[in-house]
Design goal:
By secondary structure, the first copy, chain A, is mainly alpha-helical. The first copy, chain A, has nine helices and no strands. Chain A binds a DNA duplex through helix 3.
DNA sequence: CAGTATATGGTACGACTGTTTCAACAATGG
DNA sequence: CCATTGTTGAAACAGTCGTACCATATACTG
């Protein structure tokens, strides 16, 4: 009896809201412009997600899910030497198509630093973005429980991403990765 | 004729406002709470700085100035081997006392990525933070116009700072820097 | 003293925010 | 048909935001 619920609508809205956040950032996110861009109303956003907080959480989870999926699709899992994998990951994550994701990662990270109370699952929300990548380099470790080399590799990727997004100097950052690969050979 | 202007008040306000921003972050900065914390009024903040935008610009400039000063004081300029300097810089910038500055750097960087229009002097506002550090490593370059090695060194510092601020795992990040120093010896 | 400049408090405006309330509509089951 | 349940629009609420306006207090010069 009664009209049946429509969970598909909520998911469709979530997908488009994630697009919007990836395009416009989290910082100034407001329900009314978001709803207008999605062809819906603030009323419906709250109806579907309960509150803005939960909407944001859902969007971040969705973005994380997308990133992980894209990564799994485009990385040759365990094949190739560590250096080849490192180059592949850098080429993939530094590509312009990934820029919205990179921006969002930096945004969540920075906001989490200033306002940790908004991110109860901060470890999950931020770290996991890179954990998937870091896992790829576990076998670079000299001993099974060595976490230092993966940490360094991930630091180079993150640091070069910071540089690239700030300066836009792809040539210089690409060559810096080359230099790091040289160093890793020893 | 007339009451003389009091530029000292503006500078005192700027100093305390910078303290406040370093403590609370840029994200949710609002004139009324800021004024209350400073024992003044929004009215006076606008009287002194003209607009919130200019206040923020002034605060960022002041924070940059402070960072540069502290850096100049605590780094043994050109003395020591590159490795010693790198270790010194890491120890200095990763110290808890620098955490507010590091947070602010990441915050400005992230906000600049999503909303570049707010940072017409983005290169100055963000890059310069690290440029002072990067300059210290110019002599690591293999040739005079080699910018790649300094880029890599700065990337490691930035990337490890990202890691440290996210995970708080000082031991692992410290050891990752050790590992990088080892690699650099070759 | 008057005149003139800066300094400051109080208040309100208009635009925004997330959220709520109330009413109406749509689609299904009995 | 009717009752029930999910869906949706319009409007309003209470709050915050940056900022502007107006009056007044303060401190100096002549």
């Amino acid at each position: 009896m009664g009209r049946p619920p429509d969970p598909a609508r909520r998911e469709a809205t979530l997908a488009r809201a994630t697009d919007y956040v990836l395009a416009h950032g989290l910082a100034g996110l407001s329900l009314r412009p978001l709803a207008a861009a999605l062809g819906t109303s603030p009323r419906m956003l709250l109806y579907d997600f309960g509150s803005k907080q939960e909407l944001v959480s859902s969007v971040l989870a969705e973005a994380r899910r997308r990133g992980a999926t894209r990564l799994a699709e485009n990385l040759p899992s365990e094949a190739g030497s560590p250096e080849e994998r490192l180059r592949g990951i850098w080429a993939w994550i530094s590509a312009p198509e990934r820029a919205p994701y990179v921006r969002l990662i930096f945004e969540v990270h920075a906001d989490g630093l200033a306002h940790p109370e908004n991110y109860p699952d901060r470890a999950e929300a931020i770290t996991n973005w890179f954990d998937t990548l870091g896992a790829t380099f576990r076998d670079i470790a000299t001993t099974p429980d060595d976490t230092v080399t993966p940490t360094l590799v991930m630091a180079v990727i993150r640091g070069l991403l910071f540089d690239l997004t700030t300066t836009g100097d792809r040539h210089r950052t690409d060559r810096a990765l080359d230099r790091f690969c040289e160093l890793l050979r020893y």
